[in-house]
Fold this protein.
Amino acid sequence: MEVYEVNAFTRNNKGGNLAGVIIMDNDLSIYKKQEVASILNYSETAFIEDLGDNHFNTSFFTPTQEVDLCGHATIGSFWLLKKLNMLNGKEVFQHTKQGILRVECSDYIFMEMSSTKILASVSKEITSKLLNIDEHAILNTPRIIEVGLADCMVIIKDLETLQSINIDKTAMANYCLSNNFIGFHVATLDNHQYYVRNFAPSCGIDEESATGTANGGMYVYLQSKGYIKGDETITFYQGDNMNSPSEIVVKNIDNKIWVGGQATLNKEFNIY
């Protein structure tokens, strides 16, 4: 079985978030996919099946569970398919547990996100304890937003506070599992640029260096709070504190959220 290791959402061809990509010749059971993903131990591994006519079935696994959608693994997968000349044209379609979603493949790979759901609020008090920051550093009431996956969106006052976050892993994992969402996505505005960090210990990911679905959700949250005007395109910077600088571009076209970025191929190898 051939595995491609890609870095998705790279910044200047560096950094990004590692994903495993497997282009399947034969069907694999859910159990086998989970076994492979656990062995590879990437934050997510994508399994791709070519359905023909620019349609691809995609499934995504963390080391511990299947997830409905994954931004960075989608970007990495379709960047790779383009590199391998497996695409016919710029618009293709991925079949996911969130439905059939469009992917635009040109200089940047952009993925259409599934419908947006604005869900429950989480108190500043609870959020501050889980992030180990001062409650007064949180600017708005955090909100769980689902754009593919559900994360709690948090806006804090400055970059120094963002960099200081040291989560309570066990408490956060338990809280997220009890309330049916993935993790916490935290943003701040510094010198007219948005910097973010993402924490998902409930999925076995203490921190992730680049996240597509969560930044799609953050775009919706920022727009709802008046930080983003109209259909402005926003670039989110992530992963700096993990020495993996990443760049995630989010845009709104006809009330549809699209998340995009670039990727690089790290290596390819065989298992089994």
